[in-house]
Amino acid sequence: MRATAALLEQPGQPFVLTEVDLEDPRPDEVLVRVAAVGVCGTDLEFAGFFPTPALLGHEGAGIVEKVGAQVTSVRPGDHVAMSFTSCGTCALCLTGSPAYCRSFDAVNFSGRRPDGSTAVTHGGLEVNAHFLGQSSFASHVVAPERAVVWIDPSWDLLRAGPFGCGFQTGAGGVLNVLRPRPGSSIAVFGVGAVGVAAVIAASLSGCEVIVAVDVNTAKLGAARGFGATHCVDSSAEGAAGQLADLVPEGFDFVIDTTGREDVLRTAVEALGPLGHAGVIGVGPSETMSFDWRSILNGRTVTGIVAGSSLPRLFLPQLLELNAGGRFPVEKMITYFPFEQINEAVAAVRSGSVGKAVLTF
Ligand SMILES: [Zn+2]
Ligand SMILES: [Zn+2]
C-alpha cells in the first residue's frame, strides 16, 4: 500500500513529505494507521547520522488496520500505542527486561527487520525504517506485534504516543528503578518532557523534596506545576552550592536526562551516602567523569533504557493514571499537523515546546 511519510533523504536535512510503498504485515506484524506521533530528542539525534533514505519516528499511536496470522494481542479497530521492540527469546527478554534485550540495537536501530529486509521503499529504493519498532513519521506503520500495546479506547489516542518513549522513560526511571520511598529527596536534571515525567513520578511516589534543575527558566517554572518543590537555574553560578543548601546531607536520588558530562558530574556529586543516580538521557557527551570519592559510601550510578519498562504492563498503568488526572503530561503537549513536522522539530530544538505531537 501507499503511505504518506516524512522521509529523511540526507542526514541533518529537513524532513520531506512524500509517498512511500509499505509491505503488507508479515504473520507476526501489525499494520497501524497512525493517529498521532510525538517528536523525541532521539529522533533528532539519529536524524544527524542515520543511513538514508530513512524513516524515523518512534512515539506513534493509532488504530490497527490489519494483523498477521500469528498475532493474538490486538485486532483490527483496536487502539494501540507503539514502543521499542525486543527479540523475545534472549535471557533478558525472558526474565522481563526487554529494554536490555541482547539484540536491542539490532532490532531497534539497524533500519531493518532481523532478517535484513525493510517494509518501506521509496521509488524502488529500500528505506531504512523499523526504527524503535515502528518508524511512525508516516500515516501507516508495519510494526512487530511485540512493539504494539493495546490501549483502552476511552483514553485519548492523540496523547498516547509519547508514553511509548519519553513519558515512559522519565516515569519508569523513577517508578521502576529508583523506587523512592515517601519522604525522599530527588533532583531531576533537565526538565523537558522526560524530566517532567520523572518529576510527576517522584511526586506520585511521595518524595518530599523534588528539585528541578535546568538552564531554561520557563521550563523550571512549568516544572513547579507538575510537582517540583524547588527549582535551580543551572546556568547561574553555583548550582551545586544551591543543591547543597537545599539538601545538606546530599540527595537520596538524582536523575539525569541531559547526557551532558558537566551536568552528570553535578548530579552524581549531589548524592548523599547510599544515594542512587539514574542516567536516562541520550546527550552530546561520550564520557562522564566525576571525583571517584563521590561514589564512595554506597552510591550507585545506573544507566537506564526506556525506563526499564515492560511496555505492555507499564504503558497502560501510566495511561490510566493520566486518564485519572494523576499523570497530567498532556499539559506539556503542543500539537502540530503532520505536514508541519519541520516546524515541530524547530520548536523542539529551541525548547519552546515541552512535547511536540504531530497529528494526522
Ligand atoms: Zn531479547
Ligand atoms: Zn524517544
Structure commentary:
- The protein has 360 residues and is of the alpha/beta class.
- The chain folds into 2 domains: 2-164 and 328-359, Medium-chain alcohol dehydrogenases, catalytic domain (Quinone Oxidoreductase, Chain A, domain 1); 170-305, NAD(P)-binding Rossmann-like Domain (Rossmann fold), CATH 3.40.50.720.
- The protein is 25% helix and 26% strand.
- It contains 10 helices and 17 strands.
- It has helices at residues 41-47, 91-94, 104-109, 166-178, 193-204, 217-225, 239-246, 261-269, 311-323, 341-350, and strands at residues 2-7, 16-22, 29-39, 60-67, 79-82, 120-122, 125-126, 140-144, 148-150, 185-189, 209-214, 230-233, 251-256, 271-279, 300-303, 333-337, 355-359.
- The strands form 3 sheets. Strands 3, 4, 5, 8, 9, 16 and 17 form a 7-stranded mixed sheet that branches. A 6-stranded parallel sheet has the order 12-11-10-13-14-15, with helices on both faces.
- Helix 4 (166-178) runs parallel beside helix 5.
- The longest helix has 13 residues, at 166-178.
- The chain is globular.
- 50% of the residues are buried.
- The mean pLDDT is 96.
- Bound molecules: zinc ion (2 copies).
- The site of one zinc ion has 8 residues, from helix 2.
- Residues 12-358 form the Enoyl reductase (ER) domain.
